[in-house]
Design brief:
InterPro entries: DUF2855. By secondary structure, the chain is α/β, with parallel strands linked by helices. It is 32% helix and 27% strand. Helix 4 (136-161) packs across helix 5 and helix 4 packs across helix 9.
Length: 353
C-alpha cells in the first residue's frame, strides 16, 4: 500500500509511505482506489485540517503527518462483510493512497463507513455511492467536478436562502477556481436574480474567466477600487487576507456579508489588521446540506446538486483539460503545485494509483 503524507504544519511538504496492508477484521472491506482527483479543494482540506477535522478521516501513525482526503472511485477487492461484494465500485471520500479499508454499513443515509474514528464526522464525507463500470472519463469528471460544483451549488442555494443578504452584487474571489466558476455559473442561471456577478481573479487568469461568460464584470485583484459601492456579498474562494482586507476597506458598511469558502491562498490567510465591515464567516457546505435535508426530506438537495453539476460537466471539455497521472507518487507534485498556487486553472488532475 502507498500513501502520500503531508506535513500538518507545513502543508507543501509531502512524502510517500509504503506499508503492508492490514488484515481485514470481520465486518470490513478493502477497496483498491482506481482513480482520484487532486484540486485546490484538497489544499483547503489540508489548510483547515485541524479546524474542521479533515486530518481525522484517515489517521496515520506518523506524528505530525496526515493524509489529505480526495474524491475518487475504488473497487472492493476483499470483503469480510455481507454489506459489500467483491467487485463493487464506489465513489466517495478516499485517502491520497492506493487503498482504503472501511467498515461498511447500509442505513437510511445509504452506504457509509461506520468505522469508530469517523462516527462524529460529517455524514456527507462518510457516504459511499455504488457506481457502474463506465468509461474512465466519467469517473474523472465526477471526481474533479462533483465535490467542487456541489459546494458551488450549496453556496448558491445558501445565498438564495438568505435573499442574497440584501446585496446588489455578489463578488466571487478566485473566480478562476472550479468552485468559483461554478458559483458564477449558477448565479447567472438564476431567473430575476437582481444581483450583479463580479469575478475577482489574477491578471493571468482574467481572460479565462471572461471567456466563460458567467460574470457581468471581471476585475483583477489590483482593481478592487473599481467595485461599485453598493450593498455587496463577498464569497472568498482563496483565503488571501491582503485581498480580503482591501475589499473590506473599499466597501466598508456596503459589505453585507463576507464568506470564507476556500483556502487555496492558505499561506496568505492570516489577517494583518482588523477588517472593516462584517466579520468573515466560514461557509461549511455540509451544514447547508443538513439544513435542506431537515426542511425538504432526504434525497431532495442531493438530486438538485447532481443535476446542477452535470449541467456544467456537459461543457467541461470547452474549458478544462483533464490530465491523467499514473502512480500514487505523482500525486505529490500535483498537490504541491496546487499548494504553492502554481497550478493552471484550465487543467484538472487525475491520479490513477
Amino acid at each position: 500500500m502507498q500513501q502520500i503524507l503531508v506535513n500538518q504544519n507545513a502543508i507543501t511538504e509531502t512524502r510517500m509511505l509504503e506499508a503492508e496492508g492490514e488484515p481485514l477484521a470481520p465486518g470490513q472491506a478493502r477497496l483498491a482506489i482506481e482513480s482520484f482527483a487532486v484540486t485546490s479543494n484538497n489544499v483547503t482540506y489540508a489548510a483547515a485540517g485541524f479546524d474542521i477535522g479533515y486530518w481525522q478521516f484517515f489517521p496515520t501513525s506518523e506524528n505530525g503527518w496526515g493524509i489529505v482526503p480526495v474524491w475518487g472511485t475504488a473497487k472492493v477487492v476483499e470483503s469480510r462483510t455481507d454489506v459489500l461484494e467483491v467487485g463493487t465500485r464506489l465513489y466517495g471520500f478516499y485517502p491520497m493512497a492506493s487503498e482504503l479499508v472501511i467498515t461498511p454499513e447500509q442505513g437510511a443515509a445509504g452506504l457509509v463507513d461506520a468505522a469508530a474514528h469517523r462516527a462524529n464526522l460529517p455524514l456527507i464525507y462518510n457516504q459511499y455511492t455504488p457506481v457502474k463500470t463506465a468509461p474512465a472519463s466519467e469517473d474523472h469528471l465526477r471526481a474533479l467536478l462533483q465535490p467542487l460544483l456541489a459546494t458551488s451549488y450549496l453556496i448558491y442555494d445558501w445565498l438564495l436562502d438568505n435573499d442574497f443578504f440584501g446585496a446588489k452584487q455578489i463578488i466571487v474571489g478566485s473566480a478562476s477556481s472550479k468552485t468559483g466558476l461554478g458559483l458564477c455559473s449558477y448565479l447567472a442561471e438564476a431567473e430575476a436574480r437582481g444581483v450583479k456577478i463580479v469575478g475577482l481573479t489574477s491578471a493571468s487568469n482574467r481572460a479565462f474567466v471572461e471567456g466563460l461568460g458567467h460574470c457581468d464584470t471581471v476585475l483583477t485583484y489590483d482593481q478592487i477600487d473599481a467595485l461599485d459601492h453598493v450593498p455587496s456579498v463577498y464569497v472568498d474562494m482563496s483565503g488571501n487576507s491582503t485581498v480580503k482586507a482591501k475589499l473590506h476597506s473599499t466597501l466598508k458598511h456596503q459589505l453585507k456579508h463576507s464568506s470564507a469558502v476556500g483556502l487555496s491562498h492558505w499561506d496568505q490567510f492570516t489577517p494583518t489588521a482588523p477588517l472593516d465591515g462584517p466579520k468573515p464567516q466560514f461557509f461549511f457546505a455540509p451544514s447547508q446540506v443538513a439544513k435542506r435535508r431537515e426542511e425538504w426530506g432526504p434525497g431532495k438537495i442531493e438530486a438538485q446538486i447532481t443535476a446542477a453539476w452535470k449541467r456544467i460537466a456537459v461543457s467541461a471539455s470547452d474549458w478544462m483539460e483533464v490530465k491523467v497521472h499514473d502512480g500514487v507518487a505523482d500525486a505529490e507534485e500535483v498537490y504541491a503545485t496546487l499548494a504553492r498556487g502554481e497550478a493552471d486553472p484550465k487543467v484538472g488532475a487525475i491520479i490513477r494509483p
